[in-house]
Amino acid sequence: MNIYEETKFIMKKYGISANKSLGQNFLVDDEVVSKIVESADISKEDLVIEIGPGLGTLTNELLKKAKKVIAIELDNTMIEILQDRFSLYNNIEIINQDILKVDLNEIIKKEKEENGIKHTKIVANLPYYITTPIIMKLLEEKGEFESITVMIQKEVAERLCETPGGKLGGAITYSVYYYSEAQKVLEVPHTSFIPEPEVDSEVINLKIRKKPPVEINDEKKLFKIIKYAFMQRRKTLLNALSQCELFKGKDEIKDILNDLNINEKVRGEELTLQDFANIANKIL
Ligand code: SAM
Fold it and tell me: CATH homologous superfamily for 3-208?
């Protein structure tokens, strides 16, 4: 049976249909599943945390490669299917919770202490309605994991993998670049899912950096400035930043930009991460 037939079989057996409001688009393409698992680079010493296992398609392959899989799923219906499907496995833990409310650091710490886990990797075919909050949670919590391999909407993948200062960038581009090295892995057409989503998808791999690529005194200031610079993209940097309470007024911003040789008429999206870091480091 291939994955398409297997998925159809499971859905029929349990009499379920995909819950659209939970972003359920089940992956039914054998090659894509193999490619995700391969690019996550999993060994028998690794803990894999899977977000949104659904019917367990990816989980099934991850279990073969990893020491342990912790699968976090919000939907009770999926939990019952997963428990049934993997009842004979002793290297899976299924958690019925909203990923945004899970303390991943706590989980990883426990696995290191109790199971001698050395490396942790995050893998998921993400629910698209909360892609950005999930990615931001993973990055900002600075969990002790090495990589994030996820399927997301193609358009979002382009933004996340853009170089800061590039055409497709947004505020999130700078965060992703600050915390990780992003790489596109594979474009996936909407026909690889049941039901088919309206958009095409892409698998990306974020390798967590051991050290940020810029020196920064206060990360919070850096990301606040970037947020303001992108809130009204059409404004010049000077006007956009003048709304930000970190600065005492326009004159302070002008002085800082002058000192750094940054034209005050430039738009935020043209700045590199280093430019934003230089601005943040100048604020007293
Ligand atoms: N991994 C499966 C696959 O590849 O076929 C399902 C992927 S589907 C795109 C996303 C999964 O995330 C669904 O099973 C959905 O129920 C689950 N999900 C949605 N919101 C969630 C949340 N807040 N926390 C955890 N899981 C969630």
Answer: Vaccinia Virus protein VP39 (3.40.50.150)
Q: Which atom of ligand 1 is nearest to the CA of 52?
A: 12
Ligand 1 contacts (CB < 6 A) are 22-27, 51-55, 57-58, 72-75, 78, 98-100, 125, 127, 130
The architecture that CATH gives domain 219-282 is Orthogonal Bundle (1.10)
Domain with CATH 3.40.50.150 in the chain: 3-208
The C-alpha torsion from 277 through 168 and 199 to 175, rounded to 10°, is -10
Instruction: Measure the CA–CA gap between 62 and 69, rounded to whole angstroms.
Output: 7
Which segments of the chain have a pLDDT < 50? none
Per-residue model confidence as pLDDT tens digits over 63-74? 999 999 999 999
What is the location of CATH 1.10.8.100 in the chain? 219-282
Q: Report pTM.
A: 0.95
